[in-house]
Amino acid sequence: MPKKSRNTRGKIVSAAWKLFYDQGYDETTIEDIIFESGTSKGSFYHYFNGKDDLLSTLSVIFDEKYESLIDEMKEEKPAFETMLFLNRELFALIDASVPLELLSRLLSSQLVTHGERHLLDRNRTYFKLLHQIVRRGQEQGDLRSDVSANEIVTGYAMLERGMMYEWCLNNGAYSLAQMAENQMPKLLEGYRKK
Questions:
Q1: What is the reported pTM?
Q2: How does pLDDT run across 170-183, given as a tens digit for each residue?
């Protein structure tokens, strides 16, 4: 996709999620999104069939967060700590700017879709970055090497999705980031090299 197209699509996605958070999904209109993004109706419909199409773009918002964190991740920091850092930052983002209703809709839509399951797309920044971290951790002896990098990444992703799903089931009754701070180290401990 050409850079200009990515920028226009990105403006629409960012504006939509800001509005979804500020005024709610149901109260946000396509016209609101077009106005907030500074784009046109033609541009909107070039990328999206309607507002519901934007639900699947939450993975784009997550990947943008990961891309913004790449510089903060120190090569010398153990992979285990880096994985916990990524999780903490993602869940802090969710706590601060992703409405429970929309995360719930995204997770449920991924269960019933016959199309692309964006959260499982192995070409996402999320999966590529995790693979790099895990492979580095295995090479440096921080993570187990008797388990494949793919298995560790899959396990990590399952833990995150499970925690998000549980948080949604509990109507966001607690801080997702704080719960992860307590639980994620225990849950990931099995991947650490003893």
A1: 0.79
A2: 999 999 999 999 99
